[in-house]
Amino acid sequence: MSSTDKLHQAGKIHAQARTSLLRSNSQLDRALSNSKSHDLPPITISPLQGQYLAIQCQLINAKSVLEIGTLGGYSSIWFASTGAKVTSIEINPKHRDVALENTKGLDVEIILGAALDVLPSLAAGGRKFDFIFIDADWGEQWDYFQWAVKLTRVGGCIYVDNVVRELLESENLGEHEESLVTKVGKEKKVTATLIPTVSDHKGTAQEMFDGFLLAVVKGDYYE
Ligand SMILES: C[S@@+](CC[C@H](N)C(=O)[O-])C[C@H]1O[C@@H](n2cnc3c(N)ncnc32)[C@H](O)[C@@H]1O
């Protein structure tokens, strides 16, 4: 089957899953249309991914979520829908302003700033989170991950989005090259896995294969 046919098939599978598994949510729909009317780029997580993240947070009974990369707050709304308090970091003031409109009335705090400036201050303030979602600058993922290990409670999870697509698009992908995956593999404080995904969410063949890294932070008693 050609990759065009596969994209078409993935589209059908996705459409069926969207129709069958998702309930309508007017706040999410409003957030997408408001973000579009403000010309924010269409680079949110997919609705099914949002539902996955919400399920994952419920599985670990997450009461506090840290998100790196707010955009218009679409994923923040998914996290807030679980009852968790959401802290989200965004570097772009326009994105932050639209996200404030979209998340009005929800327990979502948006911090304006560069993640690598904000994360150390959260750690210095003794903040801990149950779930950390990394979805900002691909070039800084390993730095975010290292801060996330410090900021996650024992038993909490770290989710890094777009890890497979980043590797697929990388010029130097080779067995012996260092990547986020190899670096995480050497980090003794976590147990991690890579979950490849296939989706037509972004609508191009190049972006159909992706996947995320999911890690759980271990306690000393596991070592
Ligand atoms: C893929 S979008 C986030 C999408 C959002 N999580 C969602 O699914 O609705 C990435 C966002 O990260 C922000 N960003 C990029 N570099 C950043 C940095 N160094 N610190 C904080 N935010 C950053 C971008 O401005 C953009 O809004």
Automatic annotation (TrEMBL):
Keywords for the protein's UniProt record, in alphabetical order: Methyltransferase, S-adenosyl-L-methionine, Transferase
One GO BP annotation of this record: methylation
GO molecular function annotations of the record: O-methyltransferase activity; S-adenosylmethionine-dependent methyltransferase activity
Record InterPro entries: Cation-dep_OMT, SAM-dependent_MTases_sf, SAM_O-MeTrfase
Domain of life: Eukaryota
Family recorded in the similarity comment: Belongs to the class I-like SAM-binding methyltransferase superfamily. Cation-dependent O-methyltransferase family.
Regions annotated as coiled coil: none
Name of the protein described by the UniProt record: S-adenosyl-L-methionine-dependent methyltransferase
Matching Pfam families: Methyltransf_3
PROSITE patterns for the chain: SAM_OMT_I
Organism, scientific name: Viridothelium virens (Speckled blister lichen)
